[in-house]
Amino acid sequence: MLLVSVRAFSQNGYNVVWYTANEGLPSSLTHRVFQDSRDFLWIGSQAGLSRFDGKKFTNYSAPEGLYGSYISGLAEDKSGNLWVATQQGVFKFNGRKFIQEVAFDAMAITNIACVNDTVWIGTKTGLYLYANHKLTYCDTRVGLPTTKISSFLSLRDGSLLVGTGNGIARYRGSGYFDMFWTPKDMNGYIMDMAEDDAGRIWFCTLMGDGILYSYKDSIYRPAYDSLQSFPRSILVDKNKVYFTHDKHLTVFEDGVYKTSLEGFMDDENSRLGMLETVLDKEGAFWTVTTFGLASFKASNIETFFIPKGSPYSETSYDKTVDGLFRLPGDTCIYLSNGNGMYRFCSDSIVRIFTDKPRQGGDISMFDKANDGTLFFGATLNFGFDKLNNLISYRNGKYYVWPQFERALSSAHVGDQLWIGITNKVAAYKNGHLITYELNIDSLNHRMLSLLPYEGGLLVGTQLGLFYFKNGVFARIQMATPNAPAVIADIKDCGDGTLLLATKGFGLMHVRLKDNNLQHIKTLSTKNGLNSNFIHRVIIQGSTVWCTALNGVYRINNFFTTPMVEYLNKDDGLLSNNWDAGPMVFDEKGYLYIGGSKGLMKFHTSIDLGANKSQKTYITTVRVNNADFQWSLPDSLIPFLGVPSRYRFKPDQNSLTFSFTSVNLHRASRTRYEYALVGYSDKKIITSTNYVTFNNLPPGEYVLKVRSTANQIFTNEPYATFSFEISIPFWNTWWFRTIMVAIAVAAIYFIYRSRLNRQMKKQQKELEVHRQITETKILAFQARMNPHFIFNSLNSIQYFITNNDKLATLNYLSKFARLLRQILDNTAGSRITLEKEIEMLRSYIEMEELRFEHKFEYELLIDENISVSEIKIPGMVIQPFVENAILHGLLHKTETGLLRIHFKTNGRQVICTVEDNGVGRSHSRALNEKKITQHKSHGTAIAINRLQLHNDKDRGLNNNVIFEDMVQNGSALGTKVIIYIPIL
Q: What pLDDT does residue 828 have?
């Protein structure tokens, strides 16, 4: 709710605003006032404590934890906490709660001060120091002149002055006080003290003495001889010092008396007047009284009221100013109020033309023709009868022009005076008035404004803009939607462009070309104005002034980069409501504006405070439409209750933020700009001091808020609040990771289960296949064994036939040993390489004996082969050795050589069987000559056995390679390379 204040105007140039219980104070009986570092104003009243930001009062008392309703002292510590003294003790306020730090039993506290980490408490019975939760009492034993403590002043040199009932004591940190000033008489009760920018110290006593102390040369002197009216406070503003009294101010400048300002306290019921006063950071005074809080600020706007004298006026002043006019060659300002005409010169208003006919008519046009004739456009209303007349005056005589409706505007073109009437324009020259009618079938075609333009007239009407020349009206096309623009005023910018004041479309800057308007720019509510209804416009160089429905605007740098400044009641205007908004400008740079409450005058260089950068604060956060308690320690929560950063739970995602700005004098102008970074980059401008975001998704956000009382935002600082909406645990990375891990584990478990079942199935199949393979291998071995035994028996038969008993026995012995080795090694599908070699050796020796040492042999084994550990299929080498002997070496006439070499590639044993026999071709030819051809199956069986151990997945290929060794076309023997798998 916007605060509505009661306003009064004094004749000393100060604008006074009153705030009472009607405006939100808990009590109109106020007695303490203080402005903190955040620019808030704090008011102590009979009913508690109030905080004021320019818009509303926030009140605190017992329900908020502040006990003792009478506020006797206010101070702020370096941490920003507010210290409040009541009749029940001293409370510390951190912006959210009151903590009673010191409890007094109905002790009268006179004042408090915060210096560094110590709170100084002045009472009628002594001085107390409160630090680190410890209370220390001081009285005359430590140098105080009396126990009546009244005021404090912290000096720039670090010392503290303590005002007492009998002079001023100084404290420099030693635990003792020395006297700074001792009164010469009984008038020694110190009311207030202050230090100015030059280092001068000012103080005043209860009986009215104003005393200046020059600290550098220790000279005391009375500041002024006539301060015998109970001074209350001393205020410092740069080189100025103000003494406040019960109903006036005494002003000093550079240590010298300047003037006295009176008239602030006109209420005769104010017995005590100004009890305490502070000077805010904008140079305005705030004073507490027994009947409310008053603010008075210097105003550069002068107000004037028309003196009583009209027969239609029932008040002492006829305040309404309907028209303002300037005549060619005249320095005075002329005004009308519906009751007559007045001349304003030298700040004096004098009624003129008292004998004019129909005095009760509103004067909407007043101008002077070249021959000296004055014209009045008048309207007189009597019930339903309207007498609209054009009246002229010359040589003491009036003439009422018949058949003319209300005249609203005028313009000079050469020696002619043109007058805009309801449906016509009229040209006056040398006593003759010629009219030209705008033939449009409409009642809304009043000629509101005229401007000479290229030998004709630009005419602004309620139906748009027209160009009149040589008796002909031509409509000028305008790009306005839905309806023609009402042109209230037209001004020539001097560069071929025009300014149009419209009622509904704002202020238009245009260029006229070929009977069409080319828009250059438009100022409206979209880009700086608070109203689109413009009454009058004045161009002053690069600055444009205009009046609108709700106030006055100054637009600096209009033609380049417009900077809009707003002037209204906050600056001293009599009203914000403007019906006609008459405005004129004189040659001295003063602007005159008329309204329903009087005439206002100010210089166009007036300071509108457009550079004021106000502070903005985020005050509260509501979560899910409920008050929210921060789960943070007090040390992390600032004074106004919103931490710099916070993390909300996933379901705490509907947030309402309230914010405020501190502008004690232009609060009604305040607008806010906010953006929620992380949600949208769009900046929203609003006059509402709260915003709600519903169902925010998880993420990090920054709320940025700033405010201004100017028309546009420039470099105002942002208040920020960083927060995070937590991700629900089911959306967090760790939860998703766990879920993925569980899903992967489940899939893996299912996969492993199926794989295990498949592997078991495959193992069973492999086991069956292995058993079948081993059966085949054993079957092959079974086929090999009889073959070998048959050959051996043939040898034995050979030895017996030759009646060689010794050879027979020796051969039988070797045969028996070999047979045992075969029987042992063929029990399984694999044997060690060592046993395979032993069996081969036995076999070769037996064959060597059988064939009467027709060949020799060599067994070569690489050093890196561990023959006892490597296992291979059994009886796969013997058939190839047998072939080398029987088919290669036996056909050789000389002694042959059999060489067997073992090596490995890590996965296979590579056995090379090499002989220097007749070669495979010659052996094949000899075998073909035999009558009975024997087909050997041993090598084929061995190759099949090896291939049973092939493994495509491992790339294991067990093979046998036969090579014929040839030199110069002659066979040198055969080499067989056998790749045997290591099992």
A: 66
Cβ–Cβ < 8 Å for 272, 244 = no
How far apart, in whole angstroms, are the C-alpha atoms of residue 880 and residue 860?
A: 16
Closest C-alpha to 269, from 13, 5, 18: 18
Nearest C-alpha neighbor of 655 from the set 738, 722, 718, 608:
722
779: which 2 tokens?
């079957």
Give the predicted TM-score (pTM) of the model: 0.68
Residues 946-980 as b/e (b if ≥16 CB within 10 A, e otherwise) read bebbeeeeeeeebebeeeeeeeeeebbbbbbbbbb
Nearest to 459 by CA among 430, 436, 432: 436
The predicted-structure confidence for 960-970, as pLDDT tens digits, reads as follows 999 988 888 78
CA atoms within 13 A on the CB side of 142: 19
CA distances from 869 to 535, 829, 831, 864, 873 (A): 115, 16, 10, 12, 13
In angstroms, rounded to a whole number, what is the distance separating the alpha carbons of residues 669 and 301? 19
Is pLDDT above 80 for 798? Answer: no
Instruction: Give residue-wise pLDDT tens across range 446-459.
Output: 889 999 998 899 99
Helix (H, G, I), strand (E, B) or coil at 790: helix
Question: Do residues 706 and 616 lie in contact, with contact meaning Cβ atoms separated by under 8 Å?
Answer: yes
CA 61/CA 52 separation, integer angstroms: 15
H/E run at residue 791: helix 733-801
3-state helix, strand, coil split of the chain in percent (to 5) is 15, 45, 40
Q: Which residue has the tokens 């019921």?
A: 269
- Measured CA to CA, the distance from residue 931 to residue 498 in angstroms comes to 137
Sign, Cα dihedral of 886, 892, 894, 895: negative
User: Widest CA span of the chain, in angstroms?
Assistant: 188
The Cα 616–Cα 659 span in angstroms is 7
Structure tokens belonging to residue 359: 């005095």
Residue 269 CB neighbour total at 10 angstroms: 6
Assign 542 to helix, strand or coil: coil
CB-count burial class (<10 Å; 0-12, 13-18, 19+) for 694 = exposed
